Amino acid sequence: MSKNKHILVVGSGIAGLIAALELSAKYDVTVVTKAALAESNTRWAQGGIAAAMADDDSAASHAADTLAAGAGLCNPNAVNILCTEGPARIRDLIRLGVPFDQTPNGDLARGLEAAHSKARILHAGGDATGLSVETTLVRAVRNTPKITVLEHTFALDLVLKNGAVTGLEIIDSEGLPRTLDADAVILASGGAGQLYLHTTNPSVATGDGTAIALRAGAQLADLEFYQFHPTALATATSLDSSPFLISEAVRGEGAVLLDTDGHRFMPQIHPAAELAPRDVVARGIASQMALQQGLPALLDATAMSPEFLAKRFPSIDAETRARNLDWSRNPIPINPAAHYWMGGVRTDTYGRTSIPGLYAVGEVACTGVHGANRLASNSLLESLTFAWRCAHMLLEADSPSADITPFSGTPTILHEAQPQAQIPTAPITRLELQTLLWTHAGIERNAIDLGSALHTLDHSHVEGTTIHDLETANLLALARVLVTAALAREESRGAHFRTDFPHPSAAYEHSLVYAQEPKIRKINTLQVAVPC
Ligand code: SIN
Predict the structure, then answer these.
(1) In the sheet that 110-111 helps form, which strands lie side by side, from edge to edge?
(2) Are strands 426-427 and 460-461 parallel, antiparallel or unpaired?
(3) Which of 89, 278, 312, 389 is labelled catalytic?
(4) 212 to each of 9, 208, 271, 410, how far by Cα in Å?
């Protein structure tokens, strides 16, 4: 790729902003983001970034924990890259000005989270790590003249010529359809927590990049693996779709989970109790809630002093107090909520997808680094590490081509479940879709529920042409492929738990979904209404 080529980055979380900053050393870069530049999933990350930075830790130990959490489905090469290159990327963030918390003697402060064998979670502003990272990167991007930022701009579909990406169809901030030409498009658009009724993700997390890639015919992998965070705050207001996250770091500091009678239940479920892998704790809480008529479980942090809680977890402290909860005196109600999609657009370890000119980094991508279950606080590190590698591959390569490393085993190949055109469909609202996925394809699944959900989804369409409607249509497309993949995997592994097949099976490796016939929407037939 020669100078003055133009690269489009879709999304403005840590992955998109790092990619844009690195690429701007040589290329013209445009960041397309559908909200304000600083709004993203990254902004809401609390716990921190896992990295083996201290003398008593090692990349090998971090890799072993990542592989164990991934339940046999991690790509070991990607894990090795994450854990060995991650520390250098943290030093980059420090150089950019991210104010990581320090101990009194000036070392990086380190927290412990579930399934880590060492305290290696770096944090900033106590529990405001994501906000600190996002603020620092947004400042750097705003100060980089070679980066153009298009805010409130919705990415609609890729433009393909002879099977390669040549641009992006967008709806601009005035609500007008436009085409942006590009030499490469990097999807960094995050996850799709809005698939579920309860999610820790903000409202922007509607999986647009994954849906765009699906429509263009890209391979998507391991979509059945959706991680549920064990502890979202369960107050009346959590009935909206974005309950407030209570970081795993709170359990890392010693908080415990209680039933409604005040008894701990996790020690009976796993030897690591509250610090067991995330899927185990989420299922443990869900089972306990079922035993107590759906009432939330309780998180007890009262062994910590009010001063410690306010200093170590200022955001959680403020949010709980704003909801009239004093967590230094009383246990607080929590329940699991959809948090992170391990599956996504299949990439190699440089972000290359199955379509030339299309790259994916961060949560939208599936490098295989998380396997069936992501280790806590590995997501910001993944975004940072693989966005940097993607950018540097593009900076160094003249004409990068897709070169996806084969999976280690034979993937289950599922073509996209495309409802036939003649099937009559009924309108589905976003809330109906989210409720269906929560009840039929959530923490526990089975063939009957998944089959029934797929039938409903195949007989549904989304009405309307507002941005909200376009997002919901993306969610519907993604719900179909997630449920198809979950139905096909007749085993339980990591975050995918089938009550009808409760054990792992050696018969399953990765899953792949792609559209047999790519179907890019025709922009000139769309009338888009943008809310004022
Ligand atoms: C948390 O703070 O518990 C979330 C961290 C993560 O999802 O890795």
Answers:
(1) 49-50, 121-122, 110-111
(2) parallel
(3) 278
(4) 14, 6, 42, 26
Of the candidates 165, 193, 178, 261, the one whose C-alpha atom is nearest the C-alpha of residue 44 is 193
Which residues make beta-bridge pairs with 148? Answer: 30
How big is the CA angle at 298 (ends 296 and 300), to the nearest 5 degrees? 170
Q: CA–CA separation, 364 vs 373, rounded Å?
A: 15
In a mutational test of the pocket of ligand 1, which residue from 334, 339, 381, 382 has the highest number of ligand atoms less than 8 Å from its CB? 339
Token digits of residue 77: 């090469």
Please, what is the end-to-end C-alpha distance for the chain in angstroms? 40
Q: Is the CB of 315 under 6 A from ligand 1?
A: no
Q: Is the model's pLDDT at 492 over the cut of 50? A: yes
Alpha-carbon distance of 127 to 383, in angstroms, equals 19
Q: Do the beta carbons of residue 362 and residue 207 sit within 8 Å?
A: no
Residue 491 in any domain: the answer is no
Average of per-residue pLDDT across 175-187: 95
The amino acid present at 503, given as its one-letter code, is H
| Rg from Cα positions in the chain | 22
As given in the structure block, the two tokens for residue 100 are 């990581």
Of the candidates 185, 183, 186, which has an alpha carbon nearest to the alpha carbon of residue 5? 183
Q: C-alpha 92: how far from its chain's center?
A: 22
Reported pTM: 0.93
Q: Is residue 528 part of a domain?
A: no
What confidence score (pLDDT) does residue 364 get?
Answer: 98
> What mean pLDDT do residues 209-214 have?
96
Q: How far is CA 341 from CA 194, 249, 371, 456, in A?
A: 11, 20, 11, 22
Annotated active-site residue 278? The verdict is: yes
CA angle centred on 344, ends 473 and 499, rounded to 5°: 90
The least confident of 1-15, 59-73, 75-89 is 1-15
Residue 476 lies in a domain: no
Integer Cα distance of 361 and 351 in angstroms: 6
User: Same structural domain for residues 239 and 136?
Assistant: no
Q: Is the dihedral of CA 283, 284, 285, 287 positive or negative?
A: positive
Length of the chain: 532
163-176 tens-digit pLDDT? 899 999 999 999 99
Decide which of 359, 377, 396 is a domain's last residue. 396
pLDDT in tens, 293-328: 999 999 999 999 999 999 999 999 999 999 999 999
Spacing, Cα 258 to ligand 1 middle (Å):
20
Distance 124 CA to ligand 1 centre (A): 13
Question: What's the number of domains the chain is made of?
Answer: 2
Q: What pLDDT, on a 0 to 100 scale, did the predictor assign at position 233?
A: 94
Do 389 and 279 belong together in one domain? no
Q: 115 C-alpha vs ligand 1 centroid, how far in Å?
A: 12
Statement to judge: residues 242 and 137 lie in one domain: no
